[in-house]
Write a structure and sequence with these properties.
By secondary structure, the chain is mainly α. The protein has one domain (14-459). It is built from 20 helices and eight strands. A hairpin with a 2-residue loop joins strand 1 (5-10) and strand 2. The structure holds NADPH dihydro-nicotinamide-adenine-dinucleotide phosphate. Residues 127, 288-289, 345, 349, 352, 356, 386, 388-389, 394, 399, 401-402, 405, 437, 441, 445, 448 line the site of NADPH dihydro-nicotinamide-adenine-dinucleotide phosphate. NADPH dihydro-nicotinamide-adenine-dinucleotide phosphate binds next to helix 16, strand 8, helix 18 and helix 19. Its main location: endoplasmic reticulum.
């Protein structure tokens, strides 16, 4: 347990001061000192992430989804960078109009959400922030997803206002639009953190510009009472688009080849389950790391606008260029594997949610849950009590929800066969993301819970795969 902690504000900046040794209670919100590895990763991502996205999408557009051919052709002088750039579609008014309409469509309900009926969700409370605040959130994502998809199908089958291939047909011009928004929002929240932060006591300034820009300064930037940047960008335009993008790819396959392959159907169905799950359980999402612990900067702002819609949908894009018809047995096996992955993912998340909501007064796998009692201090000096579940899936490994997610992610990739590496980017990326998350989260939990976290890791010794890691 740390010593006494005081908090003060300095020119709009908030600092946490801890007296005494031990983990810095109240600083558990985010890395306080930026080590060289974090800084190098931040600079690498800021410099290269936009090019990585461009490289993948351009490889499909100009090199039939081969990731090696662009590099080989450039190296051997068959093409120049200028040739590639000249063949890249530029920003168009059409793409700008589509994207602006899309964003406004989602902002309106969030701004006027008080006046909309709720199907599931409504007003929900988030977790305690490091400064001791509990924010309220208007949960209406399921409505947004259902209405958008109903309109999509109504257009495709009844009204024919636009072609269902519209997203695929404007994919690169739309990339420029998503980048403009991604950078604009990241810059806006950076400036906002200095000039008019929503809650100054939850801001963290590391003193390193690149780190602050990327990982964010404000914890929960808001405009007015209800427009919450983190919930909006994490959970609206990008993630709702995910399933529409896949539908657009399926429509393109139909247009090009006169049929939709079973692999495309599998990708559409499995990813739709994942997305729909997100919206069905949106209130649960308020208790995940993205909302509870990450600050809002380029990582979430640009990531949600660009990285998510472009790189999470690579399997569908690949299948437009390389339609794969799987033998029925393989397709059924992959479906079953995908459902098992989803079951593990959902049940693990559900067990923690149920356990925390009922404060342990529930049954996990038909028995009273086992747990470790913990306490922590928020920056306002209040002591809070909580519990760490050690039975059910949480007794198998400390992040078994990630294991389920990884199984599902692998299945998306396997539907594309083994001819190219491009569709496997997702499982490689998810493995890096989730392993890094394990480490990042455990670091934070260790400084939040101190010796009780050590007791927990002794009780549940593995992170993802029992006996392995
Ligand atoms: P978790 O939902 O696992 O949340 C971790 C937090 O849960 C910890 O910080 C701690 O918070 C609490 N916790 C940890 N262990 C226990 C325990 N034994 N009992 C009770 N509470 C515990 O992590 P994420 O938010 O990262 O992930 C949520 C889901 O989202 C996962 O299934 C993941 O796979 C998925 N995901 C998907 C991504 C994608 O891009 N597709 C990206 C990231 C996540 P506290 O401080 O409250 O104790």
């Amino acid at each position: 347990m740390a010593g006494k902690e005081t908090q003060f504000s300095e020119g709009g900046r908030s600092k946490n001061i801890t007296n005494g040794a031990g983990p810095s209670q109240g600083q558990w919100g985010r890395a306080w000192k930026v080590d060289w590895f974090s800084l190098a990763s931040v600079i690498f991502l800021l410099l290269f992430a936009p090019f990585i996205v461009y490289y993948f999408i351009m490889s499909c557009d100009q090199f039939n989804c081969s990731l090696t051919n662009p590099a080989i052709d450039l190296f051997t002088g068959k093409v120049t960078l200028l040739d590639i750039w000249n063949k890249t579609p530029s920003l168009t008014w059409k793409a700008a109009t589509i994207y602006t309409t899309w964003i406004i469509l989602f902002m309106l309900p969030d701004i006027c959400c008080k006046y909309l009926p709720y199907y599931r969700g409504g007003l929900q409370e988030g977790a305690v922030t490091p400064s001791g605040l509990v924010l309220k959130y208007e949960i209406n994502g399921l409505q947004a997803w259902l209405i958008t998809h109903a309109l999509w199908f109504a257009n495709a089958y009844v009204f024919h206002w636009f072609s269902p291939t519209i997203i695929f047909d404007n994919w690169i011009p739309l990339l420029w639009c998503t980048n403009i928004l991604g950078y604009a929002v990241s810059l806006f929240v950076l400036i906002k953190a200095y000039l008019f932060p929503t809650n100054a006591n939850d801001c963290k300034f590391t003193g390193n510009f690149f780190y602050d820009f990327m990982m964010g300064i404000e914890f929960n930037p808001r405009l007015g009472k209800w427009f919450d940047f983190k919930l909006f960008f994490n959970g609206r335009p990008g993630i709702v688009a995910w399933t529409l993008i896949n539908l657009s790819y399926a429509a393109k396959q139909q247009e090009l080849y006169g049929q939709v392959t079973n692999s495309m159907i599998l990708v559409n169905v499995l990813q739709a389950i994942y997305v729909l799950d997100f919206f069905w359980n949106e209130a649960w999402y308020l208790k995940t790391i993205d909302i509870c612990h990450d600050h809002f900067g380029w990582y979430l702002g640009w990531g949600d606008c660009v990285w998510l819609p472009y790189l999470y949908t690579l399997q569908g894009l690949y299948l437009v260029y390389h339609p794969v018809q799987l033998p029925t047995g393989n397709a059924v096996l992959l479906l079953l594997m995908g459902l098992v992955g989803y079951y593990i993912f959902r049940m693990t998340n559900h067990q923690k949610d149920l356990f925390r909501r009922t404060d342990g007064n529930c049954k996990i796998w038909g028995k009273k849950p086992k747990y470790i009692e913990c306490s922590y201090m928020s920056a306002d000096g209040t002591k809070h009590y909580t519990k760490l579940l050690t039975s059910g899936f949480w007794g198998v490994a400390r992040h078994f929800n990630y294991t389920g997610d990884l199984i599902g992610s692998l299945v998306y990739c396997l539907t594309c066969g083994f001819d190219h590496i491009l569709p496997y980017f997702y499982i490689i990326y998810m493995t890096i993301l989730l392993v890094h998350r394990c480490v990042r989260d455990e670091d934070r939990c260790c400084s939040k819970y101190g010796k009780n976290w050590k007791l927990y890791t002794d009780t549940v010794p593995y992170r993802l795969f029992p006996g392995v890691f």
